Fold these 2 entries.
Entry 1:
Amino acid sequence: MDSTLLPSSLESLLTEELPKEAAKIDEENSVPYDFWEKLREMGFFSACLPRELGGLGLGFSGLVELARLSGRSSMAVAAVGASHTAVALLVYRHGGELAVELLPRMATGELVAAVAITELGGGTDLASSIKAECRMEKDLCLVSGEKVFVTAATYAGIFLVLVRSKGEWRSILVPRSGNMTVEKLPLVVFRGAGTSRIMFDKVRVPRKNVLEGDGLKISLEAINTGRLAYAAAGLGAAEGLLRYAVLKADKRKLFGKRLLDMQGIRWKLAELYVKTRTVGSLLKATAKKADDEGYVDPEEAAVAKISASELASDTAVLARQLDGGRGFMEGSLPERMVRDSSALGVGEGATEALLDFLSRALERKTLSR
Ligand SMILES: Cc1cc2nc3c(=O)[nH]c(=O)nc-3n(C[C@H](O)[C@H](O)[C@H](O)COP(=O)(O)OP(=O)(O)OC[C@H]3O[C@@H](n4cnc5c(N)ncnc54)[C@H](O)[C@@H]3O)c2cc1C
C-alpha cells in the first residue's frame, strides 16, 4: 500500500512531521496546540467527510489512509481521527438535517467528535452493561450516566452516546456542556488521545439530536468504522516498524556481518512483510466495499482488526528485539508501539469477542448449506 489518496500536504504532515512529534505527544500525553492546528489546516478532520458539507469526500478509503499514515508513528493521532471520522460518517448517514448543521463545523475541526459507548460494567457485553439513560421531555432529552475510555474526549465538543430510554436503545449526539465532567484517564497506551471518563448529570440535549432508528445498531455502526480505522492504524504501525527494523538491522554489525545478513532475521522480516502486504490488500478491499455500501461490513471489520492488531504487535516485538537493550529505552518507536499495539486487541472490541462473533458467522454459513 504505497500510494495515498490524501492531499500531499496532509500526507507529508503525517509521514514527515508527525514522526518528529510522536514521542512528545506520548510523553506529554497531549497533542501540542501548534501541531493540532496544522492537523486542522491540512484537512485531517475533513478528509473523509462529504464534499457538499465541507469535506474532501474521501470516505472510508480516506479514513484507512489517514489512520494508516498516522499509525506509522502515533496511534494517539490515528485514534483521534478514527473517532471523529466515525461519528461524522454516521451523522451523514443517519443524521438528516443534523448533518447539514454539524458537518461543516466538524470538517474544519472546530467541532471534534468522540464516541462514548463503553461503561464500566463490561464494554464487550453492551446489552447488559449500559446503564446510561435519557429521559425524553417535550423538545429535550436529559442524559445521565457514566462512560469510560472515551478516546478524543478532552478535545471533543460533541459525543455520540449510547443510552437506554424507556427500555429502547438510543444513539444521541450530546454537545459538551456544563453538566458533563470529563476526567482524563491515566492510560499507558494511546497517550495523547485524550482518553477519558465522562459523567453526564441530566445533560439537556435537543430532541432532534436523537438519531432516528435502533440506537444499538447505529452505535455498532460507529464501532465498526472505528474497528476498520484501528486495523489501518495497526497496518501503519507494522509498516513503520518494519522500516525501523530494516534500517537498524542494516546498521548493526555483529560477528562481522550486518544483522540484516543473518538468515534468521531476514526470514522473520520477510514473514512480516508478507503479512503486511496481505493486510494492506484486505483493508483496501474492505474500505472500497464500505464506500460502495455506505457502511463497514461487521465481519470484514472484525477480520481486519484481528489480523492487523496481531501483525502490529508481532512487528513491534521484533523491532524492539533487533534494537537489543536500546529497545527498552523510553521514547523509541518500538517501545511505544509495543504498548500501543497491544491496545488494538481491546479498543473497538476485544479480539476474543470478535473471534466469538466470527465463529458464529462461520457456523451459520457452514451449517446453512
Ligand atoms: C485504547 C482504547 C480506546 C478506546 N476507545 C473507546 C472509545 O472511544 N469509546 C468507547 O466507548 N470505548 C472505547 N474503548 C473501550 C473498548 O471498546 C473496551 O475496552 C472494549 O470493548 C472491552 O471492554 P472492557 O474494557 O469493558 O472489557 P470487558 O468487556 O470486561 O472484557 C475483558 C476481557 O474479557 C475477554 N472477553 C471479552 N469477551 C469475550 C468472549 N466473548 N470470549 C472470550 N473472552 C472474552 C477479553 O479478553 C476482554 O479483553 C477503548 C478502549 C481502549 C483500550
Note: The chain has three domains: 8-112, 114-213, 216-364.
Entry 2:
Amino acid sequence: MRVLIASEPGRPERDNEDFAAAAPGLLLVVDGAGAPAGVESGCAHSVSWYARNLGGLLLAAASDVALGLDEALAVSIERVNALHATTCDLGHPGSPSATVALARVGDGRLEHLVLSDSVLVLDRLDRGPTVITDDRLAEVIARLDEPDGHSPVGSDEHTGLLRSRVERLASYRNQSGGFWVASTKPEAADQALTGSIPLAELDAVALLSDGASRLVDRFQLMTWPDLLGVLRKAGPGELVARTREAESTDPDGMRWPRGKASDDASAVYWAVQDLASPNL
Ligand SMILES: [Zn+2]
C-alpha cells in the first residue's frame, strides 16, 4: 500500500498542530485546535501534543478490526484523557481539541470516519468525488451574528474578533445542537460521520485538514475533481505548495476572510491501484 503524505505548519517557525500518518491499512489526518494566546485552556500541554497523542493512539486502536472506527476514536479520546487527567482540568471548555479524518482498508472495503471540518474525498470510479465533511461548526459560526465586514489578519480588530468567537463557541462545543470535535468527551465519536465503500468502486481517497482543502472550499480556486487531479499527478506536496501560493497573494485575508493567513495543511492520498502490499 503506497500512501503519499504532506503535512506542513502554516508558518515554518510554528508548531504543526496537524498530525498526518499512515499505517498498514490505515490513513489518518488529525487537525488540532486550541485557545488563542491569552485565553485559558485548563491544559498544560500544547495543541500539537494533543494532536500527536490522539493520532498515535487512534492508529493503534483502529488497527483492531474488531472495533468500529467510531469505537476506536472513543477509546483513543479516553486514553488521551488518562495521559493528563492528573495534571490538567479536563472539564475546562478550552481544553485542546481536534478534527479527525480516518480511513481503514480491509476485506475489500474502505471504511471512513470524519469528525468536524477535516475533509475526506472518495474518488469514485465513473462517478467522481464524494466529499465527506461535517459542517456543523460552520453552521454555528454563521449563527453567532458577528459584525459585518472584516478586518486584516493580524490587526487588533481581527485578533479581538477571533478571541470573542472562540469564547462564544465554547458553549456550543460538544453539546447537542452545537458542533462536535475530539477533545475530552468520548461520546463525541458517536457524532462522527461514518460509512464504507467497496474498493472495487474506488479510484482513490484523499484525507485533508481544512488548511489543505481551502483552495476548493474557501478560496474557490479549483473544483474537487481539480484537487484530486493535482494529488494524482503531482502529489500532496504540490497541493500544499499551491495553497501557500494562493495564500501569499492575499496575506491580509481581505479577499478570502480567514483566521490565519496560512494554516497548517495536511493531505494524505492513496490510489487504490497502488494496492501492492498484501499487508492490509
Ligand atoms: Zn493537558
Note: Helices lie at 47-62, 69-84, 136-143, 156-169, 210-217, 224-233, 236-248.
